[in-house]
Amino acid sequence: MKLTWKRIQAHTRHVWKIARSGESVTGGHNVERAIVSIEHDGLIGLGEAAPTPYYGQTLDTVERTLGAVEQARGTAGDLLGDDPRDIDGIIDRLLERFDDQRAAVAAIDAALHDWWGRKEGQPVWRLLELDAATTPATSMTLSIDDLALMPQKVEEAKGFHILKMKIGTDKDVETLTRLRELAPTQTIRVDANCGWPAAEAEARCRAVEPFKLELIEQPFKEGELDAVRTLRQVANVPLVADEDSIRPRDVEKLAGVYDGINIKLSKCGGIREALRMVQLARANDLKIMLGCMVETSLGISAAAQLASLVDYVDLDGHLLLVDDPFCGLVLADGVVRPGDEAGLGVRPTGNLTV
Ligand SMILES: [Mg+2]
Prior knowledge:
Oligomer: single chain
Bound molecules: magnesium ion
CATH architecture of the largest domain: Alpha-Beta Barrel
Largest sheet: 8 strands, parallel
Distance between the termini: 16 Å
Radius of gyration: 20 Å
Strand content: 15-25%
CATH topology of the largest domain: TIM Barrel
């Protein structure tokens, strides 16, 4: 089994900005990602690393992690072994050593799943005994921006039934008032990205409730669970954890606190860990959102394999790009889903060589 990787660049249509600082693409158009390749038996599987500095991960730490995995090849501490079908064993070994580098682990996990599907000649969703045809519609995300740009963004998102508005500033009401004028019938969910001060919780929530929101994502800083508990007693909108919900061991402590959790492959470590979170969430009566970073179609395709399992889909990262270097995901009537092609079902466009 041969492991290689390379950095690629892509660009967002609009400047990407959210409430908390430290986000990987705040304030610019450039998105840099690592494409990981696993080659074995004449077949190649691909995965994408979309690290977030907020979680202590950058492309440098991804490459250091991949370099350490490569360096251990053929030694007593070999983490990959010789069988790419041993996904559970490989991911267990990787997480034991790189628990805090889950974006890199997620890329290897995706490449292993892609390889497995290509070997079997089946899409990964089918190998996981799921039905991609039942995938719920995705939301299209509008990042924090000058309100003058909102008409253009809403127009660009008119094919989507659900809009996700980034809020969490002192302009929330102004933003949602304008959005409701422009999108009177679309479902609106909001993401505060930790931006609400806990002391103003009830006032902030009361101020946005008239806009008939589907849900509120991560109102407060991570760890402020008492504030979430208090708000949930008075809120008429489901509260969903994102920055509070990183990996499987986070799920049980969120039960009875939030109404749901947002699972992202680059936070949790890939498809295998995401499936664990789905099981834990269901066992603890939590709703499930499946989210993403700004990623190419390759990264989104790994999450899309699981999207039929969840309540809320937010897989629009590739749709924010003007130069997505991969293609193959289906977008139809506001639903993003994988096709019937083998593996993750995507392929490079243009002259990207991997
Ligand atoms: Mg979020």
